[in-house]
Records
---
Amino acid sequence: MSPITSNLLLIDDLPVEVVRKNIRTLRLSVHMPDGRVRVAVPLRTPDATIRELVLARRAWIEKHQTRFAAREVAPALTYVSGELHAYQGQAYVLQVQDSEGAPKVVLLPNAEPPILTLHIRAGSTVEQRRKALDGWYRQQLRQQLPALLAAWQPVVGAQASSWGIKQMKTRWGTCNIQARRIWLNLELIKRPLPCMEYVVVHELTHLHERYHNARFWGLMDQFMPDWRQHKAELNRVHLRAADAD
């Protein structure tokens, strides 16, 4: 396997972390919380090509840096009663209740305000509560995905051979085109359902077109005409980085 190397390149007045590795395309990203710029490039990419990319996307970079600078950093969750936790676009007040046996989560969406109750053993740690809640989130997403795929695969005209769920820092979803396998970010279960549908359609569309080019977005317009609305909703909640299309 080829080694991965990293160095800092100053482009005008902008420090850019350049990571060279065994990939085929250049990928530009801006990272939270300080707006750090990173470019992942094929191993033999000349600096001049990197400079050209960064300068061409300078306005895009500055837009995300400004957005990150203005964004309030969410406090770290401690999984105690009274915290707000999201599920499918709705904020729920967490209630932690001591309970014997395996952890269990109960939603009370009609309460005022809506309540998410975590039943867990007394004396549980923050990490144990986090794992219990994440396990419930994963179960909900796993139950809902087959129906979404069944609904959208005929629309897109492409079928995934398999799918999976994982926690991702910089992606809402990914697609392994060769294996025809799609991955969805566990965090999607916290976003409104149309956002999850958008990511499903987006990844299935990659089975027609690998790159985010005009053909790809034209297909998205055909399959889901209101995709921009759902993408904008996802962008209101930033992952740890914003990746260039």
---
Amino acid sequence: MDHFWTFAGSYWWLVFPLLGIAGGAARRWDVLAQRRHARQLEVMRAKAELKTVTASTRVTGGGQPQPITKPSPLPDQLEKLFAVHDDVTARWLEYELDVARMIAFPTMSDGRQPLTAAFLRAKKVADRLRPPTADARVSPEQLAEYRTAVTDYEVAFDLAERDARRVRDSQFTETERKRLATAQQLLSVALDESATPAERQVAYRRVREEVDGLLALSDEAVEILENKVALQIERPHPAPDDERGPASAGPRP
């Protein structure tokens, strides 16, 4: 015991750093506790939102009274689902048919990427379950199944788009990224109306060469790009007689 008090008397100054360490540990514990509490609140909020969404997607049961003279609400619900379905497809086509977007966000057109592949699968399901028209005969179960498919389709696209905008061209090598950057610059020249037709033609051909093997351009995307570039189609030279035309004919003797 005497040794302890001797040690304490010699190193009494250690009390202050130890108190600081203890205080820091206590504050750290409080921060972690607050974070755990915040995460618990987020989980509870997410569960509540999920319950709300699930309840809203349920089709009204037969136990609830429906006015006999009121038309079926199914066509209205289908039209709303069609609008969401078409909007997601239009957003996807902006990437699929725009070469500039494909170069800027290449993973949106790469089915090897997990999120893009999941989106494409969700698209197939939604397209397959889509009724032909809003007036088509569908059961409440079919309507609920299609609604779920459209929701999955929309969510899958949002996730794929966010990831594509986050990673951009980071999936490519340094050499491939330089090729994509060059293609982006050349595309600006090809679409520049102030450039000469020859400059635009050369830039367009270089764009195709730079993205070859990196991006899979669809025929529709190529056609749209060619229309934008307004490629000059070589016309056959007129025959000598055609060059003279009516003006070359002199007065008849």
---
Amino acid sequence: MTIAIATEWVKVPAPDLEIDAYVAAPSEPGHYPAVVVIQEIFGVNSHIRSVAERLARQGFVAIAPAIYQRTAPGIELNYTVEDMAIGSRHKELTTASQLLSDIEAVITYLRSRPDTNAESVGTIGFCFGGHVVYLAATLPAVQATASFYGAGIATFTPGGGAATLSRTAEIGGTVYAFYGTTDPLIPLEEIDQVEAALTTASDRHRVFRYAAGHGFFCDQRPDYVPAAAADAWEKVLELYRSTL
């Protein structure tokens, strides 16, 4: 059974800027667990907003911050080759320190809301956002991470430096990672590396593999696989309900 929701755009104050963010929350007054939704390279587009709304209908306050606020405020792209090139350029301009700072600011904002119980929060991210939430899992407040086809976790970190995978031991919460086994952007050996690092770090973490390509969760992309998306969604809800 789903519940009525309300949506709005808000401004989240951060140390060096204000971040535009899309919020979806249950309409009924209450104190709800919170989830931060991190975009693909395409901005806070209709797919990302729909994920936030789906979470809200399940009883979460969901917020999707614009992680390209510094370089492309208001950007919203489609799944074309041309838009992919634009989104990739802005991805290259992000840094791990800025991303972590922005997500910390979003968590602080969530804790200021009267409708959240945000001592601990969850995250969910897709594509580049899947990488970003793996990085953000190192933040103490993040207790549940759903990382969908996050490319490059084993090979780089935004802005340069040691690969994000090297920080796995810093993760305090639980990570569920979702991959397609025919994803051309994430070789199987990199999935194996992520799984090995997570397994070494904690027996709570889980990696799920589907016979699918990149973007299998997004119903706006040609790689959408309904059965895999539905199964992954149930696992995401299981994760949040058991940890938040």
